[in-house]
Structure formats: structure tokens, C-alpha cells
Write a structure and sequence with these properties.
By secondary structure, the protein is of the alpha/beta class. The chain folds into 4 domains: 162 residues, Rossmann fold (3-Layer(aba) Sandwich); 79 residues, Helicase, Ruva Protein, domain 3 (Orthogonal Bundle); 93 residues, Zinc Finger, Delta Prime, domain 3 (Up-down Bundle); 270 residues, Rossmann fold. The protein has 31 helices and 14 strands. Strands 10-9-8-11-12-14-13 form a 7-stranded mixed sheet. Strand 8, helix 22 and strand 9 form a beta-alpha-beta unit.
């Protein structure tokens, strides 16, 4: 047994230091505590001499052969050793014959250690299998390759796999110190002194490989004294240069706990952020060469994938994590490929740091703990008592799975945190994100007829048609209105645009896009509206932001305009007013025309998109088309015709045309057919049929039988419970040029 792991070479000379320093007992083993530590299964089996077949799997220099040597010195069984590179089926049969004789004649077991067992082909492994299975030999296989892939599955299934890990630096340093103090097998008879950092360099470069470390120490020590055989007690000094030459790797100026560590990783990250793959590879190579922990490098790249690449390439984080997982499976040296893969992917990926928007949101949270809006609250607990969840719009009810509604707290209405870049994938979603934000602004911030255009809850009772895919035409209508206005105005990049009644911001954002070199001036009627629009515009540079003023008047005087906007002349005044906040008459439109004339430059124009009441939807049509109420519809149609002919509806599109022509404008008129799926609420129905506050309701109550008036209201209430109504009307676009 002694000859199996002898410290003498075949020629009688002394064996290499790594071979001489092999552990002899379990106590001599450094590292691998997870398999041979106190109380571990393998340690107990060795101590009790009850070992079964095992396979030791791990990278070179982790102690597989050394552990076999300990077993050879501990067991009472006979010990045989084969090297799979040098032996074949003939050698296996000879070992089996000897083992069989021992067991039959002396009832003595045989332990067979096969180094590099993965080197045997399938036939060689199969030749051993029956004897392992019947217990003639107990196999100890050693392999640097994954046994589940490289070793016969039948052999693996009859063995217990133990994975050895590369030694930590502290464990390698302990091995080195034992070697330098061991007088029998090491260099304890001499006073070996390493220059500061030289021994640590050998330990670091050994990268967990004990054999590599001991070979380097041997070369450094025995080449520092020529010839080798100094008297005991001789001082032997090992310089950094000698250490570098001994392990054939230059010691890099790199300290994993100091400035060089942080400076190098900083250079690496900044090179990737700057999209320089060559520099990124250089700093990566320096870190790996210096022994930096790959887990640390991957951790920093994962962070960078979200922080600096972000939504410009949302796949980046998945690629880096996959590379990190691949490295965990294969380790070095092949692990350099996934390291390089991740590095190059990030360095060449488009960049966006918009994920930093989270910290803006965090600041807002720390500044103000705003309450959850009522319609976003959990309706499962307090809906009945407090109305929680009432008015929530279910986005999946729409064909595009999106509907505009307020999601931020009231105190933060209009606040923006995320500004999509125009790079990579984020550039593809930018237009969609901004368009939805603008539509949401227009609907949430704007003044609708009731303030509840889209208040329809999926949980409301009796709405069986909810899961049918519907398309709310609200967004389409708003975009159509905007495009019609700007098509008529046809502004140049440097034009100055005044936007009255701009609370919703719909025309404002398009004006900023169309006239980046001009002026976009907006008028709103409340400070809150101004604050909301300024929040939406916060993502823009100061020079690009709109100028916003607060006034109750629809138009300012030239002096007010000069004060607010440093400009009293505009190329276009654009107004979208589907209804007027006060009851307009001839004088109202006359004043509007005079105000526009005083503010418009030569060849300027005033664009007004409005919806005259006479051209709006008729309830009689809804009864006929949506409710199948033909008889009631006919009665209501006559009453509605009388209502609009009576002048109670107050104004016509011709009133606008005449007022502007009187002031010298040339006016063109365009009729626009409009329709949308509109969600009507009980509150809106009640307001229409209110005989005290609604002109239409008051007129209908007087011109219809009471029973018919009540029946029409009831039919409409039943209809809106089934979902949106198709709403039809016509808008008028006035283009008045001066």
C-alpha cells in the first residue's frame, strides 16, 4: 500500500513537493469541509472503514488523489490504483483477479482507485461494472469532468458522487505555511522568506489549485539557491520577480479590497456604459487575470443591464443572467466565454437609464404620502359601505386593452417620472407611451360634459356584455380632433401658437412637436390645471417647455399676452371647444373674433373646432338604434326637432361664421362626422332628464306625456347597464384667416 503513494520516484529520487505534501490522515486535509468535515458522511465512512463506491469530482488540484491517499492510509482493505490514461481492459482484469482471490481466500475487500476515470471508454467502464455491482471491488473514481455526462450511467448509479471545490485563498495559504514549516517533507529546515506580497501572489494566481501552488513554491525556493542543497537554517529569500517567474504570470497591480479593485471595476462599467467593447474586454481581462471573483463581475453587469441598458434592450438582463448561470455550470477556463459574451452584449447594446425614474418617484413618496384614489381602492371589502372601486375602468374591456383614467393620487395628478428614450426597443415604445400619456392627460385633466366619460365598472351588476371586446372611441376621437385642427393650421417649425382652454393639454403637446423653434403658449382657467400641465412637461428641457398662464377669459388682451408670454402676436390661435362654458350668443362670438384679430399676426388664422348642440346625438336615434323603441322614438324625434328649432339650444355654427366675417376674416367651414363607443352613467341619465337644470329635460317633460317621458328614461337606464352606446354627432371646424 505504501508504494501506491510513495514519496520516491521510480528512479529513486525525491518526488515533487506536491506529491510529498499529500495528506496522510483526515486531519491533514485542508479545505473540503463540506464532505470531510466533522460529522460528514464521507468522513464517518472512512473512519469506520465502511466505504462504498464513490466518485470524486472536481477541478485539478482540489485533493481528489490526496483524499484517495488518506483512504489508502486509513483502510484495512487492500488498495489498488489505476490511471485511466495508462491502463486498459487487461489491467482491469488483472486487478479484478487479484481482488477476487483476496476476497475468496482471505475475505478481504479491495478498494480500487481509478484516476481520470472519465478517460476510459464505454467498453472499459463496462468491464468494471459487474465487479463493482457484486462488491468484488469498491471503486474510488476521480474525475475533473462532470460524471453525470462523462461516466457510464450504470457506474454512476452504483456510486455516491462527492464534488470537491477549489480551495479558498485562506486554505491555500494554510497549505503554503505547512509546507514551509514541515521539516520532513517540506522546507522547514530552512528559513524561507517571501517578499511582501509574493506568497500572496502565488496563492491568488493558483486559483484554488493546491498542486499549482506547491509546484510554484517548489520552483521559487529551489531555484533561489544554486545548487540546491543549502545547509539547514539557511535563509532563502523569494522576491516578487521570482514568484512571478515561478508561476509564469506577472503580478498585476490589483488589490481586491483596495483602490485598484474599485478603480478597475469602475473603468469596466464606464467602458460598457460608453459602448466601447474593446476597453470593456481589456478591463474584464485584467480583473479575471488578477483573480477577481466572477460572481462579483456578473453582479455588476446585471446591475448595469437594468441601470444603463434598461428598456433600450429589455433582453439584456436575461442574457447576462443566463451567462452567469452558464458560468456557474462550467467554471473556468471555459467560463471565460460567457463572461466575454455578457460583456460584449452589454457594450454593444443600446443604452437608456430611464429606470432611474424610480428614484424620482421615491422622492415624491418621501415628500408626500398621498392617498389611493377611490376608484383604485380594493372593491372586495369596502365597496358597499364606502364606494371603494366605484368608477374604475377595466382596461381589458377594450380592444387595445387600455383605457384612459387617473392612476396617480389626486395630489400628483399630471406628475411624470418616466421619460422614454428614443433608443433601441424604448424608441419603439416611446410614441405609444407618450400618446397614451397625452390621451390620459386630455381625458383626466380635461373638462368633459359630466366629468365621468369612462366611469363604468366591471363589477357593476347586470352588465353581462362586459367580457366582449369593446373599443372606446374616446382616444381615437381626441386624436382625430387634434389632427384635424393642426392639418387646417399647417404650422411651420418656427410659428407662434396660442392655445386657449388648454386644460387637457391635447393640443399643447402636438404644438410643441410641430413648432420646436417657435412658441407654444397655453391658457388654462385654474392654477391646478397649470400645475398639472407643468408636471407633464417636467421631462422637457427648459428651453423646450411651454409657457402657461392662468385666466378665466377665453383670450387675453395684447398687453396681457405680452406680460405672460413676452409676445403679443401669434401665427395661429387653436381652440378645441366641444361645448362652451357659458351660454354663447352673437355678442360672445363677436368678442371672440375681435380678440383673435388683435392677437393674430398678418396672414394668421384662428382655428375653432366645436360641436353645435343641433348637430349632437339625438336621444330618439338611440332609442331606435340601441333600444328598439320605435314608437317612443318617433314621439321623441318630433319633440327634439321642436327643441332645436325653438332656439333654446342657443347657438348655431353660422353664428361663429358671421362674427368672424364681420371682423374681416375669411372663413372656411368643414363638417366632421364623429362617432365613438361611449360609456354612459346613471348620473348622466339623471342630469339629462332633470327638469329643473336641463333645458332638454325641461322641454321634453312639457312636450311629452309623463308616462312616455318616464318610459324613455327607464329604457335608457336599462340599455346603459349592458355596456357602451354608439354615439354619433357632427363637429364643425372653422378656419378664419385674417
Amino acid at each position: 500500500m505504501d508504494e501506491l503513494f510513495s514519496a520516491k520516484t521510480e528512479t529513486g529520487g525525491q518526488s515533487p513537493l506536491a506529491d510529498r505534501m499529500r495528506p496522510r490522515t483526515l486531519e491533514d486535509i485542508v479545505g473540503q469541509d463540506h464532505i470531510v468535515g466533522q460529522g460528514r458522511l464521507l468522513r464517518r465512512a472512512i473512519q469506520a472503514d465502511r466505504l462504498s463506491s464513490i466518485i470524486l469530482y472536481g477541478p485539478p488540484g482540489t485533493g481528489k488523489t490526496s483524499l484517495a491517499a488518506v483512504i489508502a492510509n486509513t483502510t484495512r482493505a487492500s488498495f489498488e490504483k489505476l490511471n485511466a490514461v495508462l491502463s486498459g481492459v487487461k489491467d482491469i482484469r488483472e486487478v479484478i483477479d487479484r481482488s477476487d482471490d483476496r476476497f475468496r481466500l482471505y475475505a478481504k475487500r479491495t478498494i480500487l482507485f481509478v484516476d481520470e476515470v472519465h478517460r476510459w471508454n464505454k467498453a472499459q467502464q463496462d468491464a468494471l461494472l459487474p465487479w463493482v455491482e457484486n462488491g468484488t471491488v469498491i471503486l474510488i473514481g476521480a474525475t475533473t469532468e462532470n460524471p453525470f455526462f462523462e461516466v457510464n450511467k450504470a457506474l454512476v448509479s452504483r456510486s455516491r458522487i462527492f464534488q470537491l471545490k477549489p480551495l479558498e485563498e485562506a486554505e491555500l495559504l494554510e497549505c503554503a505555511k505547512r509546507t514551509l514549516s514541515d521539516k520532513e517533507r517540506g522546507y522547514g529546515n530552512w528559513n524561507v522568506q517571501f517578499e511582501e506580497g509574493a506568497l500572496e501572489h502565488l496563492v491568488e494566481i493558483a486559483n484554488g489549485d493546491t498542486r499549482s501552488l506547491l509546484n510554484a513554491i517548489e520552483l521559487a525556493v529551489e531555484t533561489s539557491v544554486t545548487p540546491w542543497a543549502p545547509p539547514p537554517g539557511t535563509e532563502i529569500r523569494i522576491s516578487m520577480n521570482a514568484a512571478e517567474e515561478s508561476i509564469q504570470r506577472k503580478a498585476l497591480l490589483y488589490d481586491r479590497d483596495g483602490d485598484y479593485h474599485f478603480d478597475t471595476i469602475s473603468a469596466f462599467i464606464k467602458s460598457i456604459r460608453g459602448s466601447d467593447p474593446d476597453a470593456a474586454l481589456y478591463w474584464l481581462a485584467k480583473m479575471v487575470r488578477a483573480g477577481e471573483d466572477p460572481k462579483f463581475i456578473f453582479r455588476r453587469m446585471i446591475i448595469l443591464a437594468s441601470e444603463d441598458v434598461g428598456l433600450a434592450d429589455p433582453h439584456a438582463v436575461s442574457v447576462v443572467i443566463s451567462c452567469a448561470q452558464a458560468f456557474e455550470r462550467i467554471g473556468f477556463p471555459e467560463g471565460n466565454f460567457p463572461l466575454s459574451h455578457a460583456c460584449l452584449y452589454l457594450a454593444t447594446a443600446p443604452k437608456s437609464n430611464t429606470t432611474l425614474a424610480y428614484f424620482d418617484a421615491l422622492k415624491e413618496v418621501e415628500r408626500e404620502d398621498a392617498e389611493v384614489p377611490n376608484h383604485l381602492r380594493d372593491a372586495s371589502r369596502d365597496a358597499e359601505g364606502f364606494g371603494h372601486g366605484e368608477g374604475y375602468v377595466y382596461p381589458h374591456a377594450y380592444r387595445d386593452h387600455w383605457a384612459a383614467q387617473q392612476y396617480l393620487p389626486n395630489a400628483l395628478r399630471g406628475r411624470t417620472f418616466y421619460s422614454p428614450s428614443s433608443v433601441g426597443y424604448e424608441g419603439k415604445i416611446r410614441e405609444s407611451v407618450l400618446q397614451k400619456r397625452e390621451l390620459q392627460s386630455a381625458i383626466v385633466l380635461g373638462d368633459s360634459e359630466t366629468g365621468e366619460f369612462l366611469s363604468w365598472s366591471a363589477s357593476a351588476k347586470g352588465r353581462e356584455g362586459w367580457f366582449k371586446r369593446l373599443e372606446s372611441g374616446r382616444g381615437k376621437t381626441l386624436l382625430g380632433d387634434r389632427d384635424a385642427i393642426f392639418s387646417a393650421a399647417d404650422p411651420a417649425r418656427h410659428d407662434r401658437i396660442l392655445l386657449p382652454q388648454a386644460n387637457d393639454g391635447l393640443l399643447l403637446w402636438e404644438s410643441l412637436r410641430r413648432c420646436p423653434e417657435g412658441l407654444s403658449a397655453a391658457l388654462v382657467n385654474t392654477p391646478a390645471a397649470k400645475d398639472a400641465l407643468e408636471r407633464y412637461a417636467a421631462i422637457l428641457d427648459d428651453a423646450e417647455k411651454p409657457v402657461i398662464a392662468v385666466t378665466e377669459n377665453i383670450l387675453p388682451s395684447p398687453s396681457q399676452s405680452e406680460e405672460w408670454f413676452s409676445c403679443s402676436q401669434f401665427d395661429h390661435i387653436l381652440l378645441r371647444s366641444t361645448r362652451f362654458t357659458s351660454a354663447p350668443d352673437g355678442e360672445y362670438f363677436s368678442n371672440l373674433a375681435k380678440g383673435a384679430k388683435s392677437l393674430l399676426a398678418k396672414n394668421g388664422n384662428f382655428i375653432l373646432l366645436s360641436s353645435p348642440p343641433r348637430l349632437g346625438e339625438r336621444i330618439s336615434r338611440l332609442l331606435l338604434q340601441e333600444c328598439a323603441g320605435a314608437e317612443l322614438s318617433s314621439k321623441l324625434e318630433k319633440a327634439e326637432d321642436a327643441f332645436f328649432q325653438s332656439g333654446i339650444a342657443l347657438w348655431e355654427e353660422s353664428d361663429i361664421t358671421l362674427a368672424f366675417e364681420k371682423e374681416g376674416f375669411t372663413v372656411s367651414v368643414q363638417t366632421i362626422e364623429q362617432k365613438e363607443e361611449r360609456l354612459i352613467t346613471e348620473k348622466e341619465i339623471a342630469s339629462w332628464f332633470n327638469t329643473d337644470q336641463s333645458r332638454w329635460g325641461s322641454f321634453m317633460a312639457k312636450n311629452l306625456e309623463k308616462a312616455d317621458f318616464s318610459a324613455i328614461k327607464d329604457i335608457l337606464s336599462l340599455r346603459i347597464a349592458k355596456g357602451p352606446l354608439l354615439w354619433n354627432w357632427r363637429s364643425i371646424l372653422h378656419n378664419a384667416k385674417i
